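Appendix B, Record 12. Input sequence as logged:
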Amino acid sequence: MTPLESLIVCGTKLWLDSVDPDEVQRNRAWGATGATSNPIIVADLIETGRFDHLLSEGIRAGMDDETLAWHLTDRLVRQAQEVFLPAWQGSLGDDGYVSFELDPLLEDRASPLSVEERTARYVELGKQWSKGHQNRMIKVPATPAGLAALEELTASGVTINVTLIFGQDQYRTARDNIWRGARRRPHLDGFKSVYSIFVSRLDVYTHQHVPELSPAAQGQVGIVNAKRIWRLNQQFWADKRLPLKQEMVFASTGAKLEGDVPWKYVEAFAGSDIETNPPATNREVQASGRTFTRRVDQMPPREVLDEIDAKVDMDRMESVLMEEGLKKFADPQKALLALIARRRAELEPVPTH
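Logged structural output:
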């Protein structure tokens, strides 16, 4: 049994944090059953030059830069959906999804839109990009506008992946809004929601801002926070008797601190729900030779938990990380559009006179 096979056997659904067609095929062979997309992933793929033919097609069709960005994103996500469709069919809709992120520029600080206008736009775009898709999840950020859109999107039958979750309040609001929307549906068959809790960014934060944490506690805050939210999620849905699971996605699982082993977060959450890992993390895990067992419900010692609760201001951390997260959310979309403009200049035929 390979390391990733042992991870799956112990209860984890393995998703890939990429829609690179080559990585999708490789990770599907390793047992992955889903994937996620974002503008950084799409931009990195464009940089390789492997998709110049699709860019050229869009240019010839008269697409502007923004339309071309979404056209290419849609194509890449569709291709991944085809690969994972058998997993969706085999699980009766409980797995096999590919996540499609809505326009991050809705959260740009320079946007003139009000929260209400952004919410309406999330609803409009969510319906647009999910229409006609069986195994596409729509990624909506846990911002005021994104959270406010969740009830209407869910009531409309859209399958949601709430992203940019750092804390318990965000999670609870997202979950409650989605559950209200679900109960407006004519039935709950096919109702599926997931909640992407970011992990490693919390440990980067405490390394920088809470250096007084002991060695035993430093680097554990992201894990403890995510496991606590996972437990809340388990408790909330336990008595709902739904056909499909409403799950946590453990995201931002690549090790970021010096001295961390590549499988640090993969191992910590083994045994339940979904891990969405970068391609490099899955490669390193697969090469590790390790066997994974259930760890998701195991916490550090009580003294470590007490120290974290005493020294880490969770509200302040969530506020700082959300501010950083929104910048990391919008800036890559701007960079993607700028990259497409550059590639357009390189690919467009020079007019002859």
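The first strand starts at residue 13 and ends at 16.
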